[in-house]
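Protocol step 6 of 9: fold each sequence in the batch and record its structure tokens directly after the sequence line. For illustration, a two-sequence batch is reproduced in full.

Sequence one:
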Amino acid sequence: MNDTVPVTPVGGEINSSAPLSVAVTIPPYQEFAEAIGGKRVEVMVMVPPGASPHTYEPTPGQLRALSKTPLYLAVGTGIEFEDSWMDSLTSVNRDMQVVDTSLGITLLSTETEDTATADDTIRYDPHVWLSPANARIIARNIADAYIAYAPRDAAYFEAQFKTYDENLASLDEGIKDTFAGTAKNTVLVYHPAWGYYADQYELDMTSVEEDGKEPSPASLKAIITSAEEAGIPVIFASPESPTRNAEAIADEIGGSVVYISPLAENYTENLVEVTDAFRKWAV
């Protein structure tokens, strides 16, 4: 977890007459939090659907709501919104407990020869939730946080977790089945959000952006040439980010842009749709 995101030991009580107020950073975590918390939680998403965690700023209304929120389930991997705003978020509620839901996940480095920093700081891909295997770890961490905060409801949260964990396991198996029996596994993406997914399902994925930054002219030329030679027909882009450059690259390769969101609120359904798109357009 990035050093700017505090980790506080959990422990508290839920008023039996009201659900536990929980905050999460991005929409996919709303599914995680609600699936495990069920009727015992009420979830607020800080970065709403359609917004980007790279640029979004919390509203005064969100800060007021956060002042009464006892539990924040953080992504914990250096996602920009948390790095930029967590100190401000915790300042409105010093009693709010911030939980790093990425604990136990092996992070992937985003460093290349072109993006390595002079101070040898290692940068990691923050998009851990896009691997179902990681999502199961995140879900376990959320369940543990709920149980630690409200031990009287431990059996309920554990049962909710078990059901959702089985759903994630089924999602994983379904994705594996989708890619089974095909040698086509090469795709081109604009933003490097899908590295954990590609790692889990052994996709040969090229990202135009390098560590979230625009590529050098030489790198861009090499990517376009490679895509043309491979016959890649589409570039995948995120609808939450500017798409003009992706559209320009699509023109260069004689292809088109296919939009897939790493931030969709319907996490399970979204990964099924993204998998179908990767399977359809991979070469």
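Sequence two, same batch, same settings:
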Amino acid sequence: MDNKKKPSGAFKANNAKKEKILSKIAQNWLFDIILTLAKSSLALRGHREDLSQEGYHGNFLSFVELVALYDHILWQVLDMPKGSTRYLSTTIQNEMIESLGTKLETHLLEQIRASPFFAIIMDTTQDISKVDQLSIVVSIKRWDLLSKFTGESDTTLKKINQTRWSSRVTTISAIKLRFFDIIKALSSIVLKSPNKDEHNEAESNKMLNFEFVLLCEFMHSVLNDINYASKTLQKCDINLGEASKALAETKGKLQIYRNDFELFKCKACETARKYGIDTHFQEKRQRKVKKHFDELAADHRFPNREEIFKVEIFNNVLDTLIAQLNTRFTVHKKRADDKEA
């Protein structure tokens, strides 16, 4: 007779439950890796897709091996004997990609159906094999909530265009003018939005902060002056003297701003009081740096949050701009002076 004890039903159930938890955590890692590769437009597979073979295994398996170095659960999955369910085969990868695509399609369809109206753009083009490929673009109405508070206005919120400096001025101007409307829209999202991520992002309310109001006032003035110089330099009939004069005026204004911190602070206080925002800087716990025995002096600490903002943000921005104007346009000024002489 076989004297070995057979595992009990409770032991089997416990092992099955443990394997289920491990596989769920491993699958979450694998889904995240696939999403990361898809966002980066990287192919998943490589030349050799067997982890037992030496060589390059492709992006997907390489990422899995990297994560497994720091996650013991995924490492246990990789360490399973051949023939075990490890969710790494090409078939499983395709099924994961298909399930992610289905989830994304369902989410997009829900947004489209919830929108009061939408626009459809369709276009076809031939690929390298001369086969027509149909592209469908669906644009849904997403500005309805904000439009309820802003109303019919010439000033609308603008997204920053990375290639156009003037877009920064229009963006900060729109935020400054429509500040209260944006706050009301965010509050409405907090109260009514069923989307959890959208709700949490709106609830953070980083705009209801005196530092944000002060930075908005400060950058509005700075960007307006820079935009004036930019528009002047773009004129077709401008000469070297006029260009140097415009840059000198801009540099002079920035140097004046260097000593006008209190003036910007007063303007920000007026704006903050109008919207019911506390006019004090929110103090944060300062991180202490350990002092070693061979150091002659301890690190300098600012007495309050206002001094930190003034030195690390206000002065730093102006110093950088002034230095850039000096280094980039000194040669042009010298040529203009030589021409006048």
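Proceed to step 7 once all outputs are recorded. Observation for sequence two: The first helix runs from residue 9 to 39.
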